[in-house]
């Protein structure tokens, strides 16, 4: 087995955290998501995992797995209704959603991320007729030129919009709704207090907190319609509110308690909008 040396910094490094936490969940006796692709990817990447492999970080695996599971469920639901859909999986990192889910034969899937992430991804996963990777910033105006737009679109953005400026979010969403006639956007959004906290951490505790701060937050579904009036907010679920899916009793109790405090429960929510 070949290993790939990686030393990302900046926003690209955040996908190593989510990858490692999905792998940690999969190694649990009773996982929430059970993403064995993440375990294989971690084993093949030569990175100083000790930076992430700490009790404080590992506790976050439940939230990461719940979020991924919810987006998997919503993706599977959309593909059942639209078995000929085009999926744009933005900021895919090394996520294996395209392989975790059973895709109907008519689905075309595009995994999109920054060039150095896709370069690594290409060493770990293969493309075929129905599955492609696109190396670009989603803020680039031209990458959509290569994507067929004749089918309903599912746009999945997990761990992305918070790292963009609001003007970049608006520009991206406008290009998407201009191109595709119909579709759905599903994404996770951070509460404004979370964004402020990451901004303070990166300003005052930069030596300890090495990740980029969140730049765009979501107060509620009306923000989505304000960003882009073609999008119609349909639903949102706080990942923490799905605590019943955590098999580990101690973690389930902690998440259940957290979910009783509205502002805390809503720190990360998954949103769904149609166009
Ligand atoms: C928190 S990680 C999430 C990765 C993946 N969705 C997951 O859950 O493991 C954030 C990802 O956003 C990607 N990203 C950030 N800004 C981007 C941009 N402008 N264009 C494309 N990808 C971007 C990063 O490279 C990284 O892979």
Automatic annotation (TrEMBL):
Q: What is its EC number?
A: 2.1.1.-
GO MF, any single term: methyltransferase activity
State one Pfam family annotation. Answer: LCM
Q: Which GO terms describe its biological process?
A: methylation
Task: Please give the SUPFAM superfamilies that the UniProt record associates with this protein.
Answer: S-adenosyl-L-methionine-dependent methyltransferases
InterPro entries named among the record's database cross-references: Ppm1/Ppm2/Tcmp, SAM-dependent_MTases_sf, TcmP-like
Q: Which domain of life is it from?
A: Bacteria
Q: Write down the top EC class of this protein.
A: transferase
Q: Does the keyword Nucleus apply?
A: no
Q: Which UniProt keywords apply?
A: Methyltransferase, Transferase
What protein is this chain from?
Class I SAM-dependent methyltransferase
Give the source species.
Streptomyces marispadix
């Amino acid at each position: 087995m070949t290993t790939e040396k990686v030393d990302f910094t900046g926003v690209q490094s955040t996908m190593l955290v989510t990858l490692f936490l999905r792998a940690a969940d999969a190694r649990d006796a009773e996982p929430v998501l059970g993403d064995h692709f993440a375990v294989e990817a971690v084993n093949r990447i030569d990175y100083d995992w000790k930076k992430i492999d700490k009790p404080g970080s590992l506790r976050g695996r439940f939230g990461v797995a719940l979020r991924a599971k919810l987006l998997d469920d919503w993706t599977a639901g959309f593909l059942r209704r639209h078995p000929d859909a085009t999926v744009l999986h933005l900021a895919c990192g090394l996520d294996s959603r395209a392989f975790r889910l059973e895709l109907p034969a008519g689905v075309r899937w595009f995994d999109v991320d920054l060039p150095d992430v896709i370069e690594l991804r290409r060493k770990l996963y293969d493309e075929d007729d129905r599955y492609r990777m696109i190396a670009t910033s989603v803020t680039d105006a031209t990458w959509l030129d290569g994507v067929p737009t004749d089918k309903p679109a599912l746009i999945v953005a997990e761990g992305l919009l918070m790292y963009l400026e609001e003007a970049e979010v608006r520009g991206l969403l406008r290009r998407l709704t201009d191109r595709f006639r119909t579709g759905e956007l599903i994404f996770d959004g951070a509460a404004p207090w979370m964004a402020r906290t990451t901004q303070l951490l990166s300003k005052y505790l930069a030596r300890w907190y090495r990740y980029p701060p969140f730049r765009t937050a979501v107060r509620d579904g009306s923000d989505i319609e304000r960003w882009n009036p073609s999008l119609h907010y349909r639903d949102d679920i706080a990942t923490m509110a799905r605590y019943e899916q955590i098999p580990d009793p101690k973690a389930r109790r902690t998440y259940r308690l957290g979910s009783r405090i509205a502002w805390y429960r809503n720190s990360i929510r998954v949103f769904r909008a149609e166009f």
